[in-house]
Amino acid sequence: MATVPTAIHVEVLPARLGDCLLVECPRPDGTTWRMLVDGGPPDTWPLLEARLRRLDPDDRHIDVAVITHIDSDHIGGMLPFLASDLAADVRDFWFNGRTHLPVTGPGRPRSVDQGESLVAALRGPDEDPLAGGPSVLQSRRRALPWNVAFGGGPVDTGAAGGFVEVAVPGGPTVTVLSPTTKRLMRLADSWSRSLRDALGDHAREVALDVPEPLADLQHLADERTPRDTSVPNGSSIALLVEHRGASVVLGADAFGSVLTAALQGVARARGGETLTVDALKLPHHGSDANVVAALLEVAPASHYLVSTNGDVFHHPDDAAMARVVLGAPAGPTLWFNYRTPRTERWADPRLVEAHGHRVAFPEPGHAGAGAVIDLPARR
Predict the structure, then answer these.
(1) Would residue 278 count as lying in a domain?
(2) Contacts 24+ apart (CB under 8 A), 346-354
(3) Residue 1 covered by a domain
(4) Is the peptide bond before 283 cis (omega within 30 degrees of 0)?
(5) Range of 324's domain?
(6) From the first residue on, what is the mean pLDDT of each consecutive set of 10 residues in the chain (379 residues)?
(7) 256 vs 16, 137, 249, 266, 378, CA distance in Å?
(8) What backbone torsions phi and psi does residue 164 show, to the nearest 5 degrees?
(9) The pairing of beta strand 277-281 with beta strand 301-306
(10) Number of structural domains the chain divides into
(11) Is 326 helix (H, G, I), strand (E, B) or coil?
């Protein structure tokens, strides 16, 4: 029996409470298109560096490195990455710096005087004395490409329900689902404070997690939960990656309402009301404030990916996972990049038998790999 080739390979690296993903799409010419999404908190860097250095030295390039938003659990590992020789292998960085944010009032020019180069934003202006424009990010070694796919402008969708497609010759189509211009305006209003918080003390207290038994999933799914109001989360770059008939949504920490509207916009542009995808990386580490029922309805998936060890905020939330199990197509697979007491409950044989889902954890002895999934090609 012939082996079905992989269209999209996704690695959800173990980045503790954060995100660090590696996405690869084989091209017909034998080369690989590769995307890095976030770097997790600072202590993820050694793991990320080791993973990247295992790549073939002749094919170590990263076509796109995405820094989804300014939160320490997403940018912490990107700081040493930017300072390393590996940054020179990146062909385009996607990140919304201060220079990309909309003008929200008088006296707020979008100028390089605000210190908007990516390294200045992420490493601090004292670390980067070079002035940078919106089409490049500056490092001490060389100018690195910044938002080239968007003409040096912001990575956003415009209005709610909008989306932007970037077609890669011989590679995938990458569709921007978040943020909207409105969400970038909110970030512009609080840029300095948000950046200060992201670059401040990264130490977070680890609290003992004592998860309750999973009983009535419908009651959990129906719980009224507050919506995410974090300004940095709302500015997250969320993407749909499609290649050779396979598809994955990378939700970052985006708002569920923004993702829902954008995916519905894509679906309607293609003549439908829903957009079935192979995999969905749940937004905000499986927070019930972001994983809303409408999102799961508009983009039903066969695989749901969760990136967190739950040791600080106790993600994924039970309500979010109950919505997934009850609202997804029959027999979805839940992929956790950590096996913890909180995630193990979802593999309880009685629960699995009752609801028909499956659960995948990192392979024993390979916990450092996190969750690894290959989505097969259909054409």
Answers:
(1) yes
(2) 346/214, 346/321, 348/214, 351/214
(3) no
(4) no
(5) 6-376
(6) 87 97 95 96 96 91 96 91 92 90 57 40 43 39 81 95 96 98 93 80 70 89 92 97 98 98 98 98 97 97 97 94 92 96 96 95 84 95
(7) 22, 30, 12, 15, 28
(8) -135, 125
(9) parallel
(10) 1
(11) helix
**pLDDT for residue 136:** 37
* DSSP at 12: E
Alpha carbon distance 83, 87 (integer Å): 7
Answer whether residue 313 is part of any domain: yes
H or E stretch covering 64: strand 64-66
Give every CB contact of residue 139 below 8 A, 6+ residues apart in sequence.
82, 83, 87, 119, 128
Do you know the residue count of the chain? 379
Distance, C-alpha 246 to centroid of its chain: 18
Reduce the DSSP state of residue 175 to 3 states and report it.
strand
Strand partners, 136: 145
Question: What pLDDT, on a 0 to 100 scale, did the predictor assign at position 117?
Answer: 43
Task: Identify the pLDDT of residue 194.
Answer: 85
Q: Is residue 276 part of a domain?
A: yes
Q: Can you tell me which residue has the tokens 């989306």?
A: 163
CATH of the domain at 17: 3.60.15.10
Q: How far is CA 78 from CA 8, 74, 131, 187, 317, in A?
A: 23, 8, 20, 20, 27
- Answer yes or no: are the C-beta atoms of 228 and 44 closer than 8 Å: no
Q: Taking the model in full, what pTM does it have?
A: 0.91
Q: What pLDDT is stored for residue 129 in this prediction? A: 32
